[in-house]
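Both lines are quoted verbatim for reference:

——
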Amino acid sequence: MFTGIVEELGTVAGVEDLGDAIRLTIRATTVLEGTGLGDSIAVNGCCLTVAERGTDTWVADVMQETLDKTSLQGIGPGDRVNLERAVTAEKRLGGHIVQGHVDGVGTIRSRTPSEHWELVEVSVPAGLTRYVVDKGSITIDGVSLTVVEAGADRLTVSLIPETLARTVLGAKPVGAPVNLEVDIIAKHVEKLLAAHLPGEA
């Protein structure tokens, strides 16, 4: 489990094509502190397992299922990525409950800068918009954000200078894909209520 508070911007050091998977090597510092084999690190919101680690790099195996359903498809050496270690019991829950299980891939539709912040509009795949509400939580590329406005097929978020400077969202252009994870609590509530409501939930 994660909180959606990015700890560090890492850099993709290598991508090995395994046919039905890739072996991803990422250069990092902060997220390697206290991290061992088998530990979880979120990469742009995707929970990956540490398979190897060095002094300043770590390696993860990314299966075809993950590549098909996330923006990690097409990632290459030199790309920057948001990194967060799995949450521990003594860590502050500064964002919201994030599983690291991407629900779908959206696209940045527009960016509207202001003097101290930036409004970003992101498309939302059909089937996910019912979990997105004004002032609710959304995870975009592993970043815990508050929805400004939820639309029929899109949402907007407001990015503060800290988010713009310390995450990949600061540099992603219009048209770029982003990983989306909706609030897990909303999905559980929907399933529980479906058994007690007539018709389709």
User: Anything to note?
Assistant: Residues 184-194 form the longest helix (11 residues). The two ends are 27 Å apart (CA to CA).
